[in-house]
């Protein structure tokens, strides 16, 4: 295997690593590109004291830490304030907010075991929680807990001591314990309940069947729509939002199933005046045994190509 092939085989996991650090798919891909540029330039000095994979992770982590010196943490609407309750007050305010972005599972490669193994650390709620950590704490947590690096190796990468790494990890764990999602938000229901929830959600959204949707959402369900800062909490308010925004009638919408952050997702296409279905949003669902507990609907059609989806859907 030549160097280019060896670099290429690690690309998916490096993008996922940078995404955990940065909370943005676009920024993560830029960081990996910079990682490869630095690796090509520095390969002649690589002394093979570690594997190529470990060396690339070292470069990528430093690239991310440099980027985080000049950027703010990525957030979701619920991190900005209390929920709203008026579906007519959904102004996409001119906020200079760096929003969290979804991560297409297909970027991890074709091996389903890889997706399962990375699922918990890539879940949207977990990545959002990690964004609250200072960058170096975030790096320590990911390197130690996700990649299971020894503390001494993390200390070497960050040019610090093993004691400092262990202390930083302890603080990061404490903060994450306060912020991370409940355990039931990290455990999806088993088949066939999972399949039934997704099939019913898809059909009910396409037909605007509010009765079915009411039965699918948990009582404390959340619906968020970045870059719209207004979000909704509670089944009643979520249904009020959908009643207001889903146009009635057949063939108004098409949902195409995909997956993001190790979670089920749907790409929503809206029927336009030209008779075609246009990209609208990517909706990432959080499922529990009690039903759908959260929907993060990213109103960003520019995300569709990253999911291998066209901007115009032809059924």
Automatic annotation (TrEMBL):
<dbReference type="InterPro" id="IPR013324">
    <property type="entry name" value="RNA_pol_sigma_r3/r4-like"/>
</dbReference>
<comment type="subunit">
    <text>Interacts transiently with the RNA polymerase catalytic core formed by RpoA, RpoB, RpoC and RpoZ (2 alpha, 1 beta, 1 beta' and 1 omega subunit) to form the RNA polymerase holoenzyme that can initiate transcription.</text>
</comment>
<comment type="similarity">
    <text>Belongs to the sigma-70 factor family. ECF subfamily.</text>
</comment>
<dbReference type="InterPro" id="IPR013249">
    <property type="entry name" value="RNA_pol_sigma70_r4_t2"/>
</dbReference>
<dbReference type="Pfam" id="PF08281">
    <property type="entry name" value="Sigma70_r4_2"/>
</dbReference>
<feature type="domain" description="SnoaL-like">
    <location>
        <begin position="200"/>
        <end position="282"/>
    </location>
</feature>
<dbReference type="InterPro" id="IPR036388">
    <property type="entry name" value="WH-like_DNA-bd_sf"/>
</dbReference>
<dbReference type="InterPro" id="IPR014284">
    <property type="entry name" value="RNA_pol_sigma-70_dom"/>
</dbReference>
<dbReference type="Pfam" id="PF12680">
    <property type="entry name" value="SnoaL_2"/>
</dbReference>
<dbReference type="InterPro" id="IPR032710">
    <property type="entry name" value="NTF2-like_dom_sf"/>
</dbReference>
<dbReference type="Pfam" id="PF04542">
    <property type="entry name" value="Sigma70_r2"/>
</dbReference>
<dbReference type="InterPro" id="IPR052704">
    <property type="entry name" value="ECF_Sigma-70_Domain"/>
</dbReference>
<dbReference type="GO" id="GO:0003677">
    <property type="term" value="F:DNA binding"/>
</dbReference>
<keyword id="KW-0804">Transcription</keyword>
<feature type="domain" description="RNA polymerase sigma-70 region 2">
    <location>
        <begin position="7"/>
        <end position="73"/>
    </location>
</feature>
<dbReference type="GO" id="GO:0016987">
    <property type="term" value="F:sigma factor activity"/>
</dbReference>
<feature type="domain" description="RNA polymerase sigma factor 70 region 4 type 2">
    <location>
        <begin position="124"/>
        <end position="176"/>
    </location>
</feature>
<keyword id="KW-0805">Transcription regulation</keyword>
<dbReference type="InterPro" id="IPR013325">
    <property type="entry name" value="RNA_pol_sigma_r2"/>
</dbReference>
<dbReference type="InterPro" id="IPR014305">
    <property type="entry name" value="RNA_pol_sigma-G_actinobac"/>
</dbReference>
<dbReference type="InterPro" id="IPR007627">
    <property type="entry name" value="RNA_pol_sigma70_r2"/>
</dbReference>
<keyword id="KW-0731">Sigma factor</keyword>
<protein>
    <submittedName>
        <fullName>Sigma-70 family RNA polymerase sigma factor</fullName>
    </submittedName>
</protein>
<dbReference type="GO" id="GO:0006352">
    <property type="term" value="P:DNA-templated transcription initiation"/>
</dbReference>
<dbReference type="InterPro" id="IPR037401">
    <property type="entry name" value="SnoaL-like"/>
</dbReference>
């Amino acid at each position: 295997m030549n160097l280019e092939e060896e670099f290429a085989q690690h690309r998916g996991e490096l993008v996922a690593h940078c995404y955990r650090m940065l909370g943005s798919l676009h920024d993560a891909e830029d960081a990996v590109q910079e990682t490869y540029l630095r690796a090509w330039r520095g390969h002649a000095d690589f002394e093979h004291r570690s594997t190529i994979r470990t060396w690339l992770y070292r470069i990528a982590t430093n690239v991310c830490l440099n980027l985080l010196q000049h950027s703010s943490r990525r957030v979701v609407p619920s991190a900005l304030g209390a929920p709203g309750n008026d579906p007519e007050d959904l102004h996409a305010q001119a906020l200079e907010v760096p929003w969290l972005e979804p991560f297409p599972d297909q970027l991890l490669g074709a091996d389903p075991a890889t997706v399962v193994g990375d699922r918990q650390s890539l879940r949207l709620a977990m990545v959002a929680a990690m964004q609250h950590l200072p960058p170096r704490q975030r790096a320590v947590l990911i390197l130690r807990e996700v990649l299971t690096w020894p503390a001494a190796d993390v200390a070497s990468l960050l040019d610090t001591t093993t004691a400092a790494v262990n202390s930083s990890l302890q603080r990061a764990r404490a903060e994450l314990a306060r912020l991370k999602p409940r355990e039931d938000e990290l455990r999806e229901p088993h088949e066939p309940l999972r399949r039934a929830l997704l099939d019913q959600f898809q059909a009910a959204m396409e037909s605007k069947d509010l009765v079915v949707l009411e039965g699918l959402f948990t009582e404390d369900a959340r619906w968020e729509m970045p870059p719209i800062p207004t979000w909704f909490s509670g089944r009643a308010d979520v249904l009020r939002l959908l009643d207001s925004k889903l146009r009635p009638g057949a063939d108004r919408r098409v949902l195409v199933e995909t997956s993001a952050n190790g979670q089920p997702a749907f790409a929503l296409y809206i029927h336009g005046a030209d008779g075609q279905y246009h990209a609208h949003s990517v909706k990432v669902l959080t499922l529990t045994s009690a039903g759908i507990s959260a929907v993060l609907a990213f109103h960003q059609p520019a995300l569709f190509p990253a999911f291998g989806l066209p901007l115009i859907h032809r059924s």
